[in-house]
Each structure stands twice: as structure tokens, then as C-alpha cells.
Backbone:
């Protein structure tokens, strides 16, 4: 006699639960979200039927099934975060290109400050610039082109290090090595060691910026 009201209550409670799950997945495309919600509804109904077969009443079976799956907001955010990580935008070439563009822009900005503002403002702290620039590059790349960003930034750090060491040698290295009277083999070893150290330093800062940006990107999208 109470089967119809119980069935209606079951549908309403499952619908309310799924509505909260959907509210935590606003960053997910509607088609993808709809497919997930349909699968979840089927799973919930299967659990309810299983609990009913064990002898529980309809309301208790629904309650236990929803409790088994977990807090709906947490379920939605967790699934959305996993989907966003698996479907990050970008690829290796686009991430590498973006990192190169940001590096060039930062270099131009630094040159502008160095040659136009330095005499008036006593100049910026060079160590702060060299420390912050790789983090900025990594953060921009990790936010806008996170897919394959790690590989792209690793390559970018190596290329940047080669450019930096070559530029240093052309500007000051020749004179310093000539004054020191170093052998060609010693000079090459010094330049190679300098390139490796600078590449490791730059890569660490870039990857740090990328990791932080990627994490915040996911958090922002799952709480949008």
C-alpha cells in the first residue's frame, strides 16, 4: 500500500543528492556531467535494491546507500578534480611556446627597467628578478597550458641555461678566462658545469610555479 509513496520518496531523495553533486561540478561540460550523474544514479539504485534484498525498508535502504557513497559535495568536487586533471588544456609544443613567450616578455621588461629606470630608481634587485622570473614562467604555463607542462618547462630551463651561459661567456667570459689564463678544456668544463647548475636551479623554480598554479587552477574550477 505504501509502495508508491516510498518509490516517490526514493526518487526525490536520490534527485536531491544528485543535485548537490551536480552543483559541485559546474566546471565540467554538461554532456560529461550528465553521463556521470546517470551512472551514479544507476549505482545508487543498485545499492538501494541490494539493501532492500537484505531486508531493510525503503527509507533505510536509501539512507544507507547514500551514506555509503559519501557526502555529495565532496563526491562531486573529487570527481570534477580528477576529470580536470585528466583533461588539462594544452600540449608539449603549446606549453613550450607559451614559456618562451613569457620568458621573452620578462626579458624585455627587465631590459626596460635596467636601461631606462635603473639610473633614476637605483635599479631593481637582480637576485629577486632572477628568482621570480622562472616562477612566473612556470605559473603562467601551469595555469594556461598545464598538459605536458613539466616536460616543456624542463626543456625551456635547459634552453634558457644554454642561452644565459653563452651570453655570459660572450659578454664577460672571454675576458675573464683570458686574464686567468685557463686552458680550453677547463673553460669548457666550467661552462658545462655552470649550464647544469643554472638549468637545475631554473627548472626547480619553473616546476614549483607550475605545480602551485595547476593546483590553484583545479581548486578554482571546482569551487566556481
Residues:
Amino acid at each position: 500500500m505504501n509502495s508508491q509513496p516510498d518509490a516517490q520518496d526514493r526518487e526525490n531523495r536520490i534527485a536531491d543528492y544528485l543535485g548537490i553533486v551536480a552543483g559541485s561540478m559546474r566546471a565540467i561540460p554538461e554532456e560529461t556531467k550528465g553521463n556521470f550523474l546517470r551512472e551514479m544514479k544507476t549505482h545508487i539504485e543498485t545499492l538501494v535494491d541490494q539493501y532492500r534484498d537484505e531486508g531493510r525498508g525503503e527509507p533505510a535502504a536509501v539512507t544507507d546507500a547514500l551514506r555509503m557513497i559519501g557526502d555529495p559535495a565532496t563526491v562531486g568536487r573529487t570527481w570534477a578534480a580528477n576529470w580536470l586533471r585528466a583533461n588539462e588544456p594544452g600540449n608539449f609544443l603549446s606549453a613550450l611556446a607559451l614559456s618562451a613567450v613569457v620568458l621573452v616578455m620578462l626579458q624585455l621588461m627587465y631590459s626596460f627597467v635596467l636601461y631606462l629606470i635603473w639610473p633614476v630608481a637605483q635599479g631593481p634587485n637582480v637576485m629577486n628578478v632572477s628568482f621570480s622570473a622562472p616562477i612566473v614562467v612556470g605559473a603562467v604555463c601551469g595555469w594556461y597550458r598545464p598538459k605536458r607542462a613539466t616536460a616543456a618547462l624542463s626543456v625551456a630551463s635547459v634552453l634558457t641555461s644554454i642561452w644565459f651561459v653563452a651570453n655570459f661567456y660572450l659578454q664577460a667570459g672571454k675576458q675573464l678566462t683570458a686574464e686567468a689564463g685557463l686552458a680550453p678544456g677547463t673553460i669548457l668544463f666550467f661552462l658545462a658545469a655552470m649550464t647544469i647548475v643554472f638549468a637545475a636551479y631554473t627548472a626547480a623554480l619553473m616546476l614549483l610555479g607550475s605545480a602551485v598554479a595547476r593546483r590553484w587552477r583545479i581548486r578554482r574550477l571546482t569551487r566556481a
Summary: Helices lie at 3-23, 30-53, 58-69, 72-86, 92-121, 126-144, 149-180, 184-222. The chain has a mean pLDDT of 84.
